[in-house]
Amino acid sequence: MEEKPRFIPYARQSVDAADRAAVAEVLSSDWLTTGPKVAEFEAALASFCGAAEAAVVSNGTAALHLAMLALGLGPGDEVVVPALTFAATANCVLYVGATPVFADVDPDALLLDPARAGEKITPRTRAIIAVDYAGQPCDWDALRDLAATRGLALVADGCHALGATYGGRPVGSLADLTCFSFHPVKHIATGEGGAVATDRPDLAGAVRRLRNHGVTTDARQREEAGTWFYAMEELGFNCRLTDIQCALGLSQLKKLPAWLARRRELAARYARFLAEIPGAEPLALLPGREHAWHLYVAQLAPELAGEGRRRVFDALRAAGVGVNVHYVPVHLHPYYRRRLGSGEGLCPRAEAAYQRILSLPMYPGLSDADQERVVEVLAGALRQVAG
Ligand SMILES: *Cc1c(COP(=O)(O)O)cnc(C)c1O
Fold first, then answer.
1. Where are the strands (E) in 8-68, listed by range?
2. For ligand 1, what atom is nearest to the CA of residue 59?
3. Rounded to whole angstroms, how far apart are CA atoms 107 and 116?
4. What is the spatial distance between Cα 273 and Cα 265, in angstroms, rounded to a whole number?
5. What does the CA dihedral 216, 222, 228, 230 come to, rounded to 10 degrees?
6. pLDDT tens digits, 23-33
7. Can you give the pTM of this predicted structure?
8. Partner of 193 at 20 to 30 A CA spacing, among 45, 64, 180, 201?
């Protein structure tokens, strides 16, 4: 019997002995949650991403949800979001009773097009959420101009882009609020985890309150003050990140610069390989940015859109290569079709790109040899499907 090839996922965490030791240390300490590792991780994150403050929360979706609440958004408000993103970017708007309004992406890098975003602004619009898709920063100068002239809050869904820069400035310092995820497929892993980075102490304070039931002090502050009294000022949630997770995050963050370098090296190698393979090419790289390469997205030739892409996808999966498609445009999900009456034609560039994109394996632990296997299998699949 032929041996099944080892599966190469599209993304994967890297966890080493230092990470395990950091977690074990917390497990023997007094604080499993709301302890000293939380503030330590927050300070390290804020410093890494160039923000005055970072507030950690239970996951990236919670980061987006609490960002919407911190901005005071609610029923009657509209928030412009890109069509090509993970559903959570738009779901967070619905969580607070506001309405997501989908804007199209540019056709080459698949980032929110500031001109298209501008066309979606109405008197009800209160904010824009832009996504640094795949890890490449959006046109933040244009987005900041747009937000400033129209009086809107600007939120970065930076879940793909921890470690990216725009005009030399890190993602985390470009919008009013920047949301990150520490899911194992992202740049650093805490199991589940997320953060909101901001320069505004009022917004950071709001996120810290909202993650803790809307209460103004946490358990450790009360213990230190020798008091039982706490004041619940608003309706919050339990979106806390544990000390166990923060210790893991701190340990992971130390390795992030080396991991980003490896992601960039893998991306450069993919670009060289793809230049030799007919039928697939990288997305456009825009000037003035350092890409963080959460995803490596290849775009198949127009004649392979739809059915061809499905056959290439199937051939890669059958050969043990964990390709993926990021993303189904959010407005085409059944829930959004029902809820907002959205459908084909609303964001034609995102819809066209969706038929041709394929995420290839990209993570720091991917070996040169495994990457070469991915490229060989892809080249074979493209030959077969195009032939
Ligand atoms: C991963 C991701 C999220 C959500 O993060 P979770 O930690 O999985 O909740 C939100 N937006 C984008 C663009 C993401 O990739």
1. 53-57
2. 7
3. 12
4. 12
5. 0
6. 999 999 999 99
7. 0.97
8. 201
